[in-house]
Structure formats: C-alpha cells, structure tokens
Amino acid sequence: xxxxxxxxxxxxxxxxxxxxxxxxxxxxxxxxxxxxxxxxxxxxxxxxxxxxxxxxxxxxxxxxxxxxxxxxxxxxxxxxxxxxxxxxxxxxxxxxxxxxxxxxxxxxxxxxxxxxxxxxxxxxxxxxxxxxxxxxxxxxxxxxxxxxxxxxxxxxxxxxxxxxxxxxxxxxxxxxxxxxxxxxxxxxxxxxxxxxxxxxxxxxxxxxxxxxxxxxxxxxxxxxxxxxxxxxxxxxxxxxxxxxxxxxxxxxxxxxxxxxxxxxxxxxxxxxxxxxxxxxxxxxxxxxxxxxxxxxxxxxxxxxxxxxxxxxxxxxxxxxxxxxxxxxxxxxxxxxxxxxxxxxxxxxxxxxxxxxxxxxxxxxxxxxxxxxxxxxxxxxxxxxxxxxxxxxxxxxxxxxxxxxxxxxxxxxxxxxxxxxxxxxxxxxxxxxxxxxxxxxxxxxxxxxxxxxxxxxxxxxxxx
Length: 463
Ligand SMILES: [Zn+2]
What we know:
Helices cover 37% and strands 22% of the residues. It is α/β, with parallel strands linked by helices. Strands 1, 2, 3, 4, 5, 14, 15, 16 and 17 form a 9-stranded mixed β-sheet that branches. An 8-stranded parallel β-sheet has the order 6-7-8-9-10-11-12-13. The longest helix has 19 residues, at 434-452. The relative contact order is 0.16. Residues 67, 69, 126, 231, 267, 319-320 line the site of zinc ion.
C-alpha cells in the first residue's frame, strides 16, 4: 500500500467544525486518511511515497451522487422537452427494454467516466433491471475504482402510479424472482472491490409493486442488513394513486409496509407534505433531491428547505441521461441552491455551505456511510478531489465554498482519489480508456436505436 502527501491547498474538510484550512495538507496511507492540517504540521515526520503539490487548488471530499441511473447515459438526449409519461413510454422504456448486458456495461462505463471527470467518487444507482447485467456493471465499477451502490430493481406490476400495464414488455420482471436475484447479487457482490461495491434493493415506484412485494423488500433488507432506494412523490399522481389504492400518503404508506426500518433513500420527494417529512425525520429516511431532472420534466420543485428544517437528511442527485442530461454534481449544486431561492423569494435559503453539505457529508449520511466518507478527517476513507482555483471564473479567492457552488463546474476538477488510489490525474483517467468508452458507446447507441425502431433526430433540419 502506498502513501501520498497532498500539500499546499485550500482544504475544505467538511468535518464537524467545517474547518477550511489555508495551506492545508492531507496524508493518505493505503486507503485511508491518516493526517489532516496545515502543510507544515502534516509534513512533520511524514514519510510519503509520493507528494502532490496542490497550491492554487481546493481539496474537497469526493462528491456523492445519491440518485443515478447508470443505464441512462447511453440514451442521453433521447427524450427532451416531453412530459413524464410520454418520456417513459415512448422513449426511455422502449430503449431500456431493448438493452442487453453489453449495453448496460457500456452505459455504466460512460456514466462513471463522466462522474469521475466531474468529481463524483460515490454513487447510488437506483434501478438496475435484470437485462442490464448487474454483474457486468459491478465488474466495471471494480475496474473504474469508484465507490458504488448497485440497486437491483424489484417490481411485480408493469404500471406507473395509476397507469397500469404501460411498461415496455422488455422491462417487466416478476416480484418473487426479483427478491431472489437481489439476495443472489448481494451474496456475490456486496463488500467486493475492497468494500467499494454494495448491493441494495431498488424498489420500483408506486404502481410497480403490490403492498406484499413492498413488505417483502422491507423484510429482505432488514434480514440482509442492507439498504433500499425508491422513487417517491416525484409527480403529483403518486399521492393521488397512493390515496386511492392504499388510503395513505406515499410517505405514510412506505412506513406502514416497513421500508423505513432500513437505510433508505427516496429519490425526488417533490410532492412531500409535512406529515410525511415528519415521519422521515423521525425514522431517518433520506431524500435524494434532483433539481435539474425535476425542472426538465416539469415535475415541480421539492420543499428542500422545509424538509431540512424539519430534520430530514437531503442529498443531491443527477438522475439520468434523458432527464438531466448530464451527471455533473458541481453544476447540480448551483441549480439546487438557486432553485430554492427563486421558489421562496428568499436569497438566504440553501446557501453555498448547506448545498456543499448536501453533495458531501449529507450524501454520505443518506447512504449510511458517514463514518467512512463525506469529509476529510483522519481515519476516514481517502476519497478526495482536487479542484483548480486558477481559472478566470474562480478569481479572486474570496470564498472557496462560494466558488465551488456558484462559479465552478465539473471540468474544474483536476484530480480524483478514491480509496487512496489516484483514479484521475490532471484530467487523465487511469482506470478507464476514455476514447475507447466513448467510441463503444456511440456504436452501441446506434444499434440500440435500430433494435428499438426509434429514430432520434435533431428538430432543426440537419444538412
Ligand atoms: Zn430516477
């Protein structure tokens, strides 16, 4: 195991005191951080195998994306300016219903390439259908060096909210089989790649599972000691359907069927109401806020400020290629902050500091990993990113937190370290062949469109 001294940077620790250390340094030994402080102090007695001089740069914890669809990178841009049900039924599902395992792997590699290049070190993938090939994707996570939670889809009904039998046949799976598959993948992959890979339950949204199947998911997660993720309250129809079908609000229903007794992340939470967020605050359930996706599909604006005030833990997510259309958490931070200010006509809400917490330590808490990642502290895993501050849009250096949230984008991330290993250095990937992945993705995408019988063309004439 090698050791690295990262020295001379503006260090945003995100520790309990939220210390920002000018001329700061981090000593990494093997996969963990062993020393944090002023460069002069950290250097004392430290014998590192290599040193990275980061003067003019910020050192941050790696960003944590709490809601990602790896399999949607390959269908980026397939369904712009479309309502949610059309978006799903006419474009996303027919394409994903024609995926094979090679498409799943290629899409995951493209997605991880983009995430690493924009500073994300850990992600929660929410819905891996069987046809995407979870094992091939897990092998790609292992190879990429990223830390990732892979959630295998559990579903039993081909519906979405009150709309029944609308899912593409290629996406439909059987509930009992899904439950068995999660256990199988959990045994095969959970804890692999030096602990970087975990396997969770990916419950399909309301309309996709019966009450009994949700209960089965809750029971399985408790037995295996693993987590659950699920889309919830993304659109208004979720609440109407849940009231009609189960006589409860979505947030009450998921408690009743026992989903809140495990680590759980609900994606979106756009239409959450006070009784629901009170339950979530009490039970420790987290929300993955996806502002770009919610705006683009016109789902609405999540009450992030109110939920946070009530004690709900809220992380950030980029969602997917057709809904965002990129996987850049740095851009997502700015969007999240500005959206709440505009909604509440209050510039004081969701300030830069709280937003950076959502992308780091609160994201870690959502995944139940706050003791391991999310801040730069001795004893934690060495997941770090180095962001340049030497670009015109990042000068003068008045407040690094402000610059990261309001002025930077993912392309300002220069170097990425995950689990103590340098995964990207000066924007060159060490674990993924960038050109090869992009070339392969273009090829697979063309074949996929042909198989699905879809043609996606620019709306303006291309000559
Ligand atoms: Zn999603």
